[in-house]
Design goal:
The structure holds 2 protein chains of 2 kinds. Chain A has 2 domains: 149 residues, Nucleotidyltransferase, domain 5, CATH 3.30.420; 166 residues, 2-Layer Sandwich (Nucleotidyltransferase, domain 5). Helices cover 40% and strands 21% of the residues of chain A. Chain A is built from 9 helices and 14 strands. In chain A, a hairpin with a 4-residue loop joins strand 1 and strand 2. In chain A, helix 7 packs parallel to helix 8. By secondary structure, chain B is α+β, with helices and mostly antiparallel strands. In chain B, the strands form 3 sheets. In chain B, strands 1-2-3-5-4 form a 5-stranded antiparallel sheet, with helices on one face. A 3-stranded antiparallel sheet of chain B has the order 6-8-9. In chain B, helix 3 runs parallel beside helix 5. Classes of the chains: A alpha/beta, B alpha+beta. The interface between A and B is medium-sized, with 35 and 28 residues.
């Protein structure tokens, strides 16, 4: 049995997970997330938090799986994409563990990990993947040995749009309460769709920056907050569904998988369900505990990679803040 | 309008064949999407219909060989256009079509770009060779106005890429001809600028452009 320890620290979460190559696949998934009292994520503050919490999270993971680092076959680390200072925290820990315990170091792409954990936890086989989080918005499908980005945001990510608006409107932080984004919740009280807010789909790509600006302007103008949230939500989610639809139509795949921290929205799910039904595709949504950033996804993807001969010398394990999903060969999935 | 036959169902539009005032015609209809609020859905379908029809009209006036618009109904998101009978350029090239067609394909793209418009999907599956051997270009569903050389370079790159998926040996020669045709319309200075951009798009290694080519997704699955 293979046992891989995975470390996630690309943004505001330090996560440690342990994966094995037989059921139940994930035997530990512990984390701590930096939630600023006000404002957004400051990279320096976030990385300080991650460094402080890392030893405790690592210990919790080992305890949860009743195992030790000696017992591992390798250490998987998310080298990117993400915030430099945050990435360095996890990378430093992973390198130290690999050297001290003489374990191979396995580089993992954070985005690929979101996809792989989605596949193993939902049972989807060859889906169009919709990857939605604070820093990423992309529609992806696997083709000839790599995940290919079919469409993506040209500016800010969906999560970024929701969080920034929530912050400016005084709805957060925290941005997600009881599994529901504060913008989603606020929109429930909205009744009127505001005209002339921009809906920007360019071919297969989307753009949210204009929508954010228009929403903030509407706020300043004194429009009802609930109506702005409703309009913002409807436009943003519809855009994502439209691009997804295009990818399904082009690739003729029969499954849609939604992954990432924003995957949980019930309103997005409703819209996706319509699109899936319309294209006779099955809809899968990653379970909540694996939706946000987590160590288990790094461990699991590291395990897949390691089984196919992927590892990296410590001396070459540079962080890659802009490492794209479509730059990663996936020998485990041809 | 009574005898419409569906010939293609895309993500955004459904294409029907029929007749209009006695002429064989294509009906391009954008159905509503129930996941969008009705007011938004109406707005999007209406605007896109108008945008596409306007762009096509503008290009027609510039002499681009594209289908003539016969009727537009923005409120029902419908465009009726002339039907161009013929074969796909892709198929013609595979069965030994001449290099002149490649040059003409480049010229046509040049005409579109000179009109301040990018096509959005100018692959050899969107060019049609009619029964007289004349070349046409169709499907302006992704087209838009632009001044950005990047948009134009992506177009040219898409055309190149679609040629590169052909199972033929003369690809370099074909691309050369495409460029000659393109340059003859936009001028050598502009042509070189765009070609330089095409190179940088490729070097960037981002799949921004590549993924836009349907060819990447479909050709090897089908072939």
């Amino acid at each position: 049995m293979l046992k891989i320890l995975g470390i996630e620290s690309t943004a505001h979460t330090i996560g440690v997970g342990i994966a094995i190559d037989e059921k139940p696949y994930i035997i530990a998934n512990e984390r701590a997330s930096y939630i600023p009292e006000k404002g957004g994520i400051h990279p320096r503050e976030s990385s300080r938090f991650l460094a402080e919490k890392a030893p405790e999270v690592l210990a919790r993971a080992l305890r949860a799986a009743s195992t030790s680092i000696d017992d591992m076959d390798g250490i998987a680390i998310a080298l990117g994409p993400g915030l430099g200072p945050s990435l360095r925290v996890g990378a430093t820990i992973a390198r130290a563990l690999a050297l001290r315990y003489k374990k191979p170091l396995i580089p993992v792409n954070h985005g690929v990990a979101h996809i792989e954990i989605g596949l193993i936890t939902t049972g989807a086989r060859d889906p169009v993947v919709v990857y939605l989080s604070g820093g990423n918005t992309a529609v992806i499908a696997h083709h000839s040995g790599r995940y290919r980005v079919f469409g993506e945001t040209l500016d800010i990510a969906l999560g970024n749009l929701l969080d920034t608006f929530a912050r400016e409107a005084g709805l957060g932080p925290p941005y997600v309460v009881n599994g529901l984004h504060v913008v989603d919740r606020c929109a429930e009280e909205g009744s009127k769709f505001i005209e002339d807010m921009p809906y920007v789909v360019k071919g297969q790509d989307l753009s949210f920056a204009g929508l954010l600006t228009a929403s903030l302007r509407a706020l300043k103008r004194g429009a009802k907050l609930e109506d702005i949230c409703l309009t913002l939500r409807e436009i943003a989610y519809s855009m994502v569904v439209e691009v997804t639809e295009r990818c399904v139509s082009h690739t003729r795949k029969r499954e849609i998988l939604v992954v990432g921290g924003v995957a949980a929205s019930p309103y997005l799910r409703d819209k996706m369900e319509w699109a899936a039904k319309h294209h006779r595709a099955d809809l899968y949504i990653v379970p909540p505990e694996y939706a946000g950033d987590n160590g288990a996804m790094i461990a699991w993807t590291g395990l897949l990679a390691y089984k196919h001969g992927v590892s990296i010398p410590v001396g070459e394990s540079y962080i890659k803040p802009r490492w794209r999903v479509d730059e990663v060969d996936t020998p485990w999935r041809i | 309008m009574e005898d419409l036959v569906e010939i293609h169902r895309g993500a955004e539009a459904i294409i029907y064949m029929g007749s209009y005032l006695g002429i064989r015609a294509i009906y391009k209809y954008r159905p509503s999407k129930q996941y969008r609020p009705e007011i938004l859905d109406k707005r999007i379908r209406r605007l896109r219909t108008i945008n596409e029809a306007r762009i096509m009209t503008r290009l027609r006036l510039l002499g681009a060989p594209i289908p003539a618009i016969l009727d537009v109904d923005p409120d029902s998101a419908l465009i009726v256009m002339e039907y161009i009978p013929g074969k796909l350029l892709r198929d013609t090239l595979i069965s030994g079509g001449s290099l002149d067609l490649c040059r003409r394909a480049g010229e046509i793209l040049g005409i579109i770009h000179s009109g301040g418009v990018y096509h959005g999907d100018p692959t050899i599956s969107n060019y049609i060779v009619d029964d007289n051997g004349d070349l046409w270009i169709i499907d302006f569903g992704l087209a838009d106005y632009t001044n950005d050389p990047e948009d134009l370079a992506v177009d040219l790159h898409l055309l190149y890429r679609s040629i590169e998926t052909l199972p033929l040996k003369s690809i370099d020669k074909m691309e050369e001809e495409v460029y000659k045709g393109y340059e003859s319309i936009v001028g050598s200075e502009r042509g070189r600028e765009i070609l330089e951009r095409v190179r940088s798009i490729r070097l960037r290694g981002r799949y921004v452009a590549e993924r836009r080519a349907k060819a990447v997704w479909l050709t090897d699955q089908e072939g």
